[in-house]
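pinned: reference chain
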Amino acid sequence: MRKLVLLGGGYGNMRILLRLLPNNLPLDTEIILIDRTPFHSMKTEFYALAAGTASDHEVRVAFPESDRLTMVHGEIEKISMDENCVVMENGDCIEYDDLVIGLGCEDKYHSVPGADEFTYSIQTIGKTRETFKTLLGLPSGAVVGVVGAGLSGIELASELRESRQDLQIKLFDRSPRILRDFPERLSNFVKKWFDKNNVEVIPSSNITKVEPNLLYNHEDTIPVDAVVWTAGIQPVKVVRELGLESDSSGRIVINQYHQIPNHENVYVVGDCAALPMAPSAQLAEEQAEQIVKVLSATWRNQPLPEQMPEIQLKGFLGSLGKKQGFAYLADRTVTGRIARLMKSGVLWMYKWHNG
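pinned: its structure tokens
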């Protein structure tokens, strides 16, 4: 029996499962999914879980059920591509014929002293639960620092404001303005929301050190009761340790078929893959669509296309609490209630399509 092993149950591998099961998998092939949890976690909604405005149950979706899908739960110790084997932390070796690496990312601390030890994370559902317990357990008037004003930092700061009106929230932005790579109208809308809702945005920040209850921004020291780090990501350690060619962010260089050069039975999807676009759930799903087509052609001994189509992304949606939002779609900016309803609709559709 041919084995397709999927590492990680994130957006990319979830899409592969839904495309192959139940009827598009060759009869001589089975799928083994390895993940630390028995459900698919919607990482794009972890900010709401951390802020306490969404329950744990709301950010989970069940994996599809099939007698041709085997679930393995646990931590991965090593990927041995020379032996076509995934070594688990308990010593088990899971062999594969085809492998899709979709293990996601972890925080990148940019060598800032104390950042890994004294900050909280929303990169995994387990770490997000810990962040939730800390933030919701803070006393009234406590100061929360959110380091990094990308989409995750913006959504976390705004959601936390709606959850805890009594907290002081400081959002540290490395750029001179919020979302500087997008139209100024978008930046102004988000900044006005933060001003109106008493979230302090600190532009042109450079966090140089983190200590218990203290942030160093340039030469200034800022007392804080908790810090959440959203200032960069990198592939997980087991992927970085593969020693493969990677980009400046540590993401693995792949060919146009999403394969690792010289290991054409190994594919990389999502945050671990070096692509021209920034990592996102949408990008992982579009990659997965192409990987399924490549796998299907390979299994049927059909030639692959000389040129894979370029991945086209639709844009992004962001929330500012439960009532306001912002979007950048097809080079157009949408703000306010409509953008928030659009994001809620996309989330509802995702849950519906995934059962």
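why pinned: The domain at 109-231+315-353 is CATH 3.50.50.100 (FAD/NAD(P)-binding domain). The chain has two domains: 2-36+74-106+233-299, 109-231+315-353.
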